[in-house]
Structure prediction request, 307 residues.
Amino acid sequence: MNGPRILFFGTPHYARIILLSLLQDPTWEVRVVTKPDVPQGRRLQMTPSPVAQAAKEAGVQIDKPAVLKEFRQAWEDFAPDLIITAAYGKILRPWLLELPRRGAFNLHASILPRWRGPNPIAWAIRAGDTVTGVTLMAMDEGVDTGPVVGMSEVTIGDNATTGSLTQELAKAAGELLVQSLGQLMDNTAVRTPQPEAGITYAPKFDPHDARIDWTRPAIEIHRLVRSMTPDPGAYTECCQTRIKITECAYDEGEQMRGRARLYGNAWKIGTGNGVLTVTKIRPAGRKDMTPGDFIRGQHISGEVVCE
Prediction:
């Protein structure tokens, strides 16, 4: 292969979809860098990242450095034209940013400078944003602070979850990257500094963020549940069981806060403003089910309390 060389850094499903878009053109010589395998499941089996799995299936060279500098010589020998990153999970040092001939670029899952940081998709949902997108930016030593090369907007649906929105954004990011590769290689892409106004940050969620506060409005709890679906899952305590809420809707109405009443197979739970209708839950150690199935299994009748 004598085509342009790309050193691609990425780890989760979002990056996997972008990588697959990149690999559609066989003229690009791609080498993949991802995080090392991690133990997963009850048996703690060592499992490769989604990006590593996709690269293996495509027959692409894969590097899994615990420490980046261990591969410095190998990457210098590869002599990449471009570095492309997508949710890799580590900050690239200056020597890496200076390595590619045409520069290092990142595909960030927000319209920068809104939601800089590692958790932009979930925070956009949690904040009630109606539009988000992906930004292709030239990398510098800051965190998501580099000049913008391209953007693509994506509408956030009323019931979008972090899982479903990740899929949409990754597809948009892959398309944006493929469309921009020519300009990146020709060095003709316009680099626009990010504005100083409108900067927000998207840190990782703290564990306590996942617990539902029933004094909050129903619309806010609905956003919290969507932002934490599929992981880590927004939860409440009910019938001495930790229960994750995986599917719900919100509505007007009045009901005592934290009190759940069964209507058919769904719970209606009172909040600080309005009612949350819960149609799917996941009790600890069990699979998804309806609240009705859970209540019947517990042999409970009447109203229950969620805390």
User: Anything to note?
Assistant: Helices lie at 13-22, 50-58, 72-78, 94-97, 120-126, 162-186, 218-227, 291-298.
